[in-house]
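A common beginner's mistake is to predict each chain separately and then try to dock the pieces by hand. The better habit, illustrated here, is to supply every component at once so that their relative placement is modeled jointly.
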Amino acid sequence: MISPAPANILVATPSDDLMLRLQIALRSISRPAALYHVAEEEKLFAFLRKAPGFETALRPDMILLDAPLLPALDRLKSGNPYSPIPVIVIADHMDHALARDCHARFANAALGIPKDTAGLRAIAGAIDAFWFRTARLPPNVDA
Amino acid sequence: MTRAPNAEPIHILYAEDQESDALFMEQAFLTAKAKLNLHFLRDGNAALAWLNNEPRLPDLIFLDINMLGMNGPQTLEEIRADPRLRHIPVIMLSGSALDRDVESCYMRHANAYVQKPLTFPEMLGFVQAIENFWIFQAVLPQEDAL
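With all components supplied together, the output reads:
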């Protein structure tokens, strides 16, 4: 059996702690996931453009965007080559008002990220089941 | 889990012109753990008319891509252009696996694109994945959130 290609997931967060928690959680999903980390908006776009310093970056299949970097969502979804990439906005405390704002700005989904291991695994399992085993992701020229 | 199975029902609008596909999904959603209200409409025009007259907007919308009358992508564009509706998550359903169809829907701000399940076990898997991600984990926009 041929293993599925790794899902390239770009995590944009200024929080090393959140990045670590996501790394641990996404280890448990069925499809191998390659996680990349940028800590600020300009680095996010440099990664996507393969700008100097990111020449070998692969186009992500999905972006997990931490809420403090929400202004990047407007740039991501403004009708450019990166706009089809699903963006899931993540936050330690995601409430309905923030979720509504994210969706009105064309986020693909909004998630609260729990701190406990069981909650993290449940989130990772749900991402895996829907996005990697049920949904069709946009074609990825780097896949 | 961010949402308890005994929470208020989730309202789903499904625009689909094939009655057999709508019934197929309705049967599968009977297995869901969450309380769900599914509302079927036959095309995009009917869906938009319903949305414009319905005080309680749906939590999720499923749009078939190839409907007669107003098709799925056209309906999606109308929803995204309307400030009252644009925040509602929309999942596109299609028999097509063509990359251009997938990319075009994401470009028009579909939340996700799913190939229509062909068998009942596949449909049950679809329902489970929808429940686990969209209903139990994701935080959905709510009308009273502002």
